[in-house]
Design a protein that fits this description.
Length: about 200
């Protein structure tokens, strides 16, 4: 996913730990019309990202506070995402997919849980129709499909190697993870492998 940097002057340097994503819609206006508004210092509004199909605009860096929710405390700990949609322009599937990919990346970057307590509508912060009929449950479910699994640990790799070869000892049990200490005992006992410090070290003779 690539972002088109637009750069809004409407942001603050103060930032809290990011734990929320606030979902917005433009009301039917385009990303370019949103850019015009966000580029005007007198408007005192902005958002971090905007989505229309596969196009993603970025107006404010994530390390900065965008002025998007109408509540400054919420602004300091949230990411604001605009979507080109409105009462007469439902959000399309391609925009849902693009937004879900961004949401998944934000979740993994900032440790934001993918649930309705942390991915919220603008209307949950202040009285507004935004983001109207957008389906946040659909968006969250899609985002979960884009999560990247963490890399396996050395112990996990070693245990998988042991399972594939049906090698077990008194220190391991079938279908149970082993710790590095347990693995060290196992390897020392069989006197076949030495280096436990690198996940790239070979686990075969």
């Amino acid at each position: 996913m690539t972002y088109e940097w637009k750069g809004s002057p409407n942001y603050a340097l103060t930032r809290s730990k990011i734990d929320t994503v606030v979902i917005h819609w433009t009301g039917g206006g385009s990303l370019d019309s949103a850019t015009t508004r966000f580029m005007n210092p007198a408007s005192k509004v902005s958002a971090h990202y905007g989505i229309d199909g596969e196009t993603v605009y970025q107006w404010v860096h994530e390390v900065h506070t965008a002025w998007h929710s109408g509540n400054y405390e919420m602004n300091t700990r949230s990411i604001g995402i605009e979507h080109v949609a409105g009462p007469d322009k439902p959000l399309g599937d391609l925009s849902y997919q693009t937004s879900a990919q961004l949401l998944a990346r934000l979740s993994q970057t900032h440790g934001i849980p993918l649930d309705r307590a942390h991915v919220i509508k603008h209307s949950q912060v202040k009285a507004t129709q935004c983001p109207g009929t957008m389906d946040l449950d659909k968006l969250i479910a899609l985002a979960k499909t884009y999560l990247t699994p963490p890399p396996p640990s050395e112990a996990d790799l070693a245990f998988q190697w042991m399972k594939e070869r049906k090698i077990y000892s008194d220190y391991t049990q079938r279908n149970s993870p082993v710790t590095t200490d347990t693995l060290a005992i196992f390897l020392e006992r069989y006197d076949r492998y030495r280096d436990l410090k690198s996940v790239n070290s070979p686990l075969v003779p």
